[in-house]
Amino acid sequence: MGTVPLHVSFVLPVLNEAEGIVVALNDLQGWRDQGHEVIVVDGGSSDATRDLAEPLCDQLVSSPRGRANQMNAGAALAGGEVLVFLHADSRLPLDALHQLQQFVDSPEAWGRFDVRLSGERLVFRVIGWFMNQRSRVTGIATGDQAMFVRRVIFQEVGGFESLPLMEDIALSRRLLALSRPYCVRSRVTTDSRRWEQKGVFRTMLLMWQLRWRYWRGEDPLKLAEVYYPDANTRAD
Q1: Phi, psi (5° rounding) for residue 61?
Q2: DSSP letter string over 54-107?
Q3: Average pLDDT over residues 62-90
Q4: Which ranges carry the Glycosyltransferase 2-like domain (predicted)?
Q5: Strands 182-190 vs 90-91: parallel, antiparallel or unpaired
Q6: pLDDT at 224 over 50
Q7: pLDDT at 236 over 70
Q8: What is the Cα–Cα distance from 71 to 83, expressed in whole angstroms?
Q9: Which residue of 24, 76, 123, 202 is 20 to 30 Å from 152, comparing CA positions?
Q10: What angle do CA 137, 173, 98 make, to 5 degrees?
């Protein structure tokens, strides 16, 4: 099979990410230099996120708050054949370009990277391992794994459902009807702050409980109220 030229559009949903947005976007400047595209979609930040992001991306747009809404808005403007949905607190592995090229040359419609949490404690390595194994077995990916999908396929399935939570799982379910995910073993590094701030085991149990309730058909709006007990200030 011949190599298909790769053109990637990165879509970053952000909300009050002034503390880390420069580092996140600096990490993608090499991609921009090679002709790839970075789209930042702001959900109504009240800090300096927009001002800091503007010189470091190709497009800076606003949309209604909520990751699903923001990622759909960015995808609608994207010109790349491959869409990569990247959280502002996640960093791609060094071989990401090679891995995405391999994906483009494959028959799969979509995929994700393995993930590691940034914390140095052993428990974070264990959590990452279980996240990756679960994803490999079920075919379900999460946003922390930097999901990627062919743009025409994303349009075909209708993008993300406008859900306040579990939009990544809902999209995975629909994409599974087209193909299993292309699983990249190279790891995206995701900030472990929410685990450290809320408690590692408490966060782990909460996430498993919410996924279980979602699989049982509970309204994602109610689940979001549990996950975000206070007014949202971030898009995470």
Answers
A1: -130, 165
A2: GGGSSEEEE--SSHHHHHHHHHHH--SSEEEE--TTEE--TTHHHHHHHHHTSS
A3: 96
A4: 9-147
A5: antiparallel
A6: yes
A7: no
A8: 10
A9: 24
A10: 65
Q: How far is CA 100 from CA 106, 111, 163, 173, in A?
A: 10, 9, 27, 21
Q: Closest Cα to residue 234, out of 181, 197, 187, 188?
A: 197
For helices 200-215 and 122-138, what crossing angle results, to 10°?
10
CA distances from residue 231 to 21, 64, 215 in whole angstroms, order as listed: 21, 15, 25
Q: What is the pLDDT of residues 128-155, one digit of tens each?
A: 898 899 999 999 999 999 999 999 999 9
Distance from C-alpha of 179 to C-alpha of 107, rounded to nearest angstrom: 8
Cβ pair 100, 6 in contact under 8 A: yes
**CA-based radius of gyration for the chain:** 17
* DSSP E strands, the chain: 8-14, 37-42, 59-62, 82-85, 90-91, 110-117, 148-150, 182-190
Give the separation between CA 8 and CA 144, rounded to whole angstroms.
18
Phi, psi of 219 (to 5 degrees): -60, 125
Helix (H) / strand (E) containing 32: helix 29-33
d(CA 140, CA 132): 10
* Spatial separation of the C-alpha atoms in residues 189 and 83, rounded to whole Å: 19
d(CA 181, CA 126): 22
> Where are the chain's structural domains?
8-192
